Every structure is written in C-alpha cells, then in structure tokens.
Prior knowledge:
By secondary structure, the protein is mostly beta strands. 3% of the residues lie in helices and 50% in strands. It has a single domain (2-115), classed as Jelly Rolls (Sandwich), CATH 2.60.120.
Amino acid sequence: MDVRSIESVTASPEHQGTVPVWWLYKPRELKAATTGGYLELVSEFEVKGGGAVHPHSHLTHEFYYVVSGRGRMTIDGETRQIAQGDLVHIPPGAVHSLAPVRPHASIRCFCFAVGVHNTPEVNYSSE
C-alpha cells in the first residue's frame, strides 16, 4: 500500500528558495502510469464514525489526502491505519474501502482521481 506523509519526507526549498516543499510525488513520477489520462475528479468527503466507504474499485488512479481524523484504509486486502497528513494512492482496479478507527469520530479526506486513457465512464453514486 502506498501511503506517503510529509513526516517521512525532507522539505526542499523551491520557487527560488521562497517556500519549503514536501514532495509526496516528485514531478513526473507518475508520468508513465498516467500518460494519456485526464483529471477525473476533485472532491472532499467525510466518513462519519460508524460509517464506511464500502469495498469497490474503478479504473482511475485515486488519491486520498487525509485532512482530519484517522481511518483504516484497505486496498486489495491490505489494511493500514491512516491519519491527518497522509496521502494514499489507490491504483486502477484496486478494491478499496475506508472506515474511521473510532465509532464516534469521523475521517475527512480530499480526493482527486486521474482517469486512465480509453476507460468507460464511472457512476460514483452507484458504487
């Protein structure tokens, strides 16, 4: 499972040394995997305590950035706890789900997905 956090990355001075940048994915690192792709979606979502994003898959590179809370992320049978500041990469076709770690505390994530060239449209409401 590919989970990245600024806690495990050293900042480098960028933009002519004016800001520190923590590269969670370096420029062009995903170029080969996303060539011919497109930005499928950008969203923010919340899973309430006691709730869950049920197991599902789709043909996109999906990324969850944890804004707040903690959860149990499962991708293709591997489960790992994720928390604020983590960025999770979900590869195309991988079955994935997410649930908060506590029944009364939610997890909130920023999500974006990169579509893969020549794949069918996804109806996210029915997944």
